Amino acid sequence: MTVKHLTKPYVVHALINGKAVAADKQFSRENPTNPDEIVCYAPVNSREDAIAAIDAAYQSFAAWKLTEVGERVKRMRKAIEKLKASVGELAQLLSLEHGKPLYDAEGEFAVSFMWMEFACDHAEEVLREEVRQHDKGKTIITKDPIGVVSAITPWNYPISLSTIKIAPALLAGNTMVLKPSPYAPLTVSKVVELIAAEFPPGVLNIVHGEADVGVELTSNRKVAKIAFTGGTETAKHIMKAASDTIKKMTLELGGNDAAIVLRGFDVGDERAMRRMVISNFLTAGQICMIAKRIYVHRSLYDEFVQKYIEAANKWIRVGDPFDPHATIGPVNNKKQAEHVQRLIDDAKNRGSEVIPLGTVLDAGLFEQGYFMQPTVVLGCGYDDPIVVEEQFGPTVPILPFDDEEQVIALHNESIYGLTSSVWGREEDAIRVARRIEAGTTMINTAAVQGLDVQFPFGGVKQSGVGREYGIEGILSYTETHVINLPHHLELPYIPE
Ligand code: NAD
What we know:
It is built from 16 helices and 23 strands. The protein has helices spanning about 45-65, 70-85, 85-100, 100-125, 160-170, 185-195, 210-220, 230-245, 270-280, 300-315, 335-350, 365-370, 385-390, 405-410, 425-435, 470-475; strands at about 10, 15, 20, 25-30, 35-45, 130-135, 135-145, 150, 175-180, 205, 225-230, 250, 260, 295, 315-320, 355, 360, 375-380, 395-400, 420-425, 440-445, 465, 480-485. The protein has about 500 residues and is α/β, with parallel strands linked by helices. Strand 2 (about 15) and strand 3 form a beta hairpin. The model has no long low-confidence stretch (mean pLDDT about 95). The strands form six sheets. The chain has a seven-stranded mixed β-sheet, sandwiched between helices. The chain has a six-stranded mixed β-sheet with strand order 10-9-8-11-12-22, sandwiched between helices. The protein folds into two domains: about 10-255 and about 460-480, Aldehyde Dehydrogenase, Chain A, domain 1 (3-Layer(aba) Sandwich); about 260-450, Aldehyde Dehydrogenase, Chain A, domain 2. Helix 1 (about 45-65) runs parallel beside helix 7, helix 4 runs parallel beside helix 5 (about 160-170) and helix 7 (about 210-220) crosses helix 8. It is globular, with a radius of gyration of 24 Å. The structure holds nicotinamide-adenine-dinucleotide. Pfam families: Aldedh (PF00171).
């Protein structure tokens, strides 16, 4: 099946307690390559729908939390098998509604499978109860599920950022209501339906909509944990909404990740330069951990810029997501394209030089879709908005620095601290990396190229709270419960 040419829009439903639920109101999601084409209609769920989904998850939790971990793993593995069997079609749907090229959509599924399989492989060991005999008696430590989890996800990596939450949450015995972004509601709904079918009704539910549904999911007293990926500003609302009932939280938020190129970096290394370009422009720059500002040691700056532009012109090919030659598609939505353009215009007004990069495979597409010419920005000030704000699009500033102290300070001044990268001789790069305030620092690579699902991922400062991936990413869906059996049941210092 090929979904490139739609015959008619898909219709998306909410899934509540195992049943597809239609809503009175619907919104449409357009094709970012050609916004005149509607990819799908999805429900604008009401707060009542959100409450029904939370109630279903709450009721199913009572039985689900008592199941054996082995049974949960078996069900999850079956779900992964089914997803793998449909991945060709699912990746096409993702390309269509998101705008990312097909190879990129397939890559997103591949990372999702890697993580889901890691979670299955490790769940029994991580969740196993521990029994300790010690000089004061015996203690049993269990990893209990938390309860109903509200998962709220963004549009840029809708599948991996949903499965990153679904797999560990369900394996640990929680139930879930997921709300995806209105900018990518279709493929994730199909993925959720396929997974949910392998679990008892109510264990995994999905509702759609905007802030009012989000507010219910983050304030309802039956919700025990929020797993949110999205913008830092949205997270502030969520923290407030959740504060009345003191919910557990994992927040994966925005970043302004820096690439730091040290004096010892070999600018003639074409593969390294290609990795650098990919770390700025994959998915048209719409990745939380994309390198969004590049600082280059002044002694290399001119040569670096020249080689960078050469490498970018080779790798960047903007085109239809279904064109096998395209490395970059359109920006996902109009609001995002306008935000990026505003930052570029502001940089120009401040006197920066904005240089276009790459090849445009089909200029006609720019007339209809949310396409942007990728650019590099030179000559900006360290505090310019294009440097200190998250662009989340196909543009990147390159700035010179004079010494390590200065560049470490420039890096750490940011309110963000998601990932970062240091490029150069290994020992120099590690020395600088140790002083960087970030959740992950990669050496001589960056962004998804250096991502490994077996290690925890998350941000410091305003880039987030908690970690996903790795063993921590499973444990974050558990509460530690201590069952104590002391030899001495009474304390000696308490008077009769
Ligand atoms: P967003 O914050 O606008 O939206 C994220 C989700 O929150 C959407 O589903 C949205 O409908 C929902 N939402 C909006 N208002 C809400 C409210 N008041 N209560 C509850 N939910 C609400 O983010 P976005 O534009 O979809 O995604 C881009 C942002 O996500 C960028 O800042 C990016 O850096 C960040 N991001 C972070 C990571 C990470 O792992 N740290 C990964 C991907 C994206």
